[in-house]
Amino acid sequence: MPVYRDEAVVLRTHKLGEADRIVTLLTRRHGKIRAVARGVRRTASKFGARLEPFMVADLQLYEGRTLDVITQAESLGSYGAEISRDYAAYTAANAMVETADRVTEAEGSLQQYLLLVGALRSLSRNEHGAGLTLDSYLLRALSLAGWAPSFQDCARCGQAGPHTAVVVQLGGVVCDDCAPPGSPRIDPATVGLLGSLLAGDWEAAEASGERDRNQASGIVAAYAQWHLERGLRSLPHVSRGASDQ
C-alpha cells in the first residue's frame, strides 16, 4: 500500500474499538481525509497527544481500502492545550474546525489549510480577542469557499457604497433600491468592522467598540448559517462576552 507524508490539522476524532481512534484531518496537500490511529488511546501511545483536535502535525500515512492509517506523527503546532485552557478560545476553535470540515472536501485547499492553522495559532497565543478571530476566520473561510460577502458596494446591483442595509441572503450590504422592505440596518461603524474582519485589518478591528462587535458577530453568524445550510452546531455555544471579543 502506498505510503505518503503530509502536514495536517486535526479537526475531530472518534473512538474506534478499545484503543484506536478515527481522526478527521485537513491536510496541506491531500485535502480532507479520515484515518485510523492505532493504539493512541493507550497510555503508552507515543503520538496520541499529537492527534487531538486543534493540533498540527507532520504525519506519515499509508493508504487503506476505506481509511488511511497513521503510522507516524511529529508535532508542528501544539495549540490544543493552550486553546483548551480558555473557554472563549475553545468554543471559537470548535466553530472553526467544524466550519473547515464543512467547506473542504477531498480535493482540499491549501488556502483553507493555511487559514485554519493561522487562526488556531492566533487563538493559542491570544493575539486578538477570540470573538474577533472567529468572525474574521468565518468570513474568510466562506470567501475562499466561493461565498465572499460584500460590505462596501451593493451585493445585488454593485452600486457604490457605503450602504447600511444588510441582507445575508443577498450576500451582504445592499443599496436602498435593492433592500427588501424591513431590511435590517446597521451602523456605518459596524459595516467598517465587517470589512476589516474580512480583510484581516486587525488594527481597525481592535479599535472597534463592543456594540459594533456584537452587531457584527450576529451578522457573521447569520451569514455562515445561511450558506452552510444545516448550520454550525458549535456556533450557539461560542462565548460572546465582552472580555472575549
Strand order in the largest sheet:
1-2-3-5-4
Name the helix and strand elements from N-terminus to C-terminus, one letter apiece: EEEEEHHHHEEHHH
Number of helical segments? 7
Give the termini distance in whole angstroms.
48 Å
Structural category is alpha+beta
Number of strands: 7
Please mark out the parts with pLDDT under 50 across 5 or more consecutive residues, or reply none. none
Strand residue percentage: 15-25%
Q: Round the mean pLDDT to the nearest integer and report it.
A: 90
Instruction: Give a quick account of the main beta sheet: strands, pairing sense, barrel closure.
Output: 5 strands, mixed, barrel
Q: Oligomeric form of this entry? A: single chain
Radius of gyration: 20 Å
Gross morphology is: elongated
Q: Give the helix proportion (percent range).
A: 25-40%
Give the SSE layout.
Layout: E1 3-16, E2 20-27, E3 32-37, E4 56-62, E5 68-77, H1 80-84, H2 87-103, H3 110-125, H4 130-144, E6 165-167, E7 172-174, H5 188-199, H6 202-206, H7 210-227
Parallel strand pairs: 3-5
Antiparallel strand pairs: 1-2, 1-4, 2-3, 4-5, 6-7
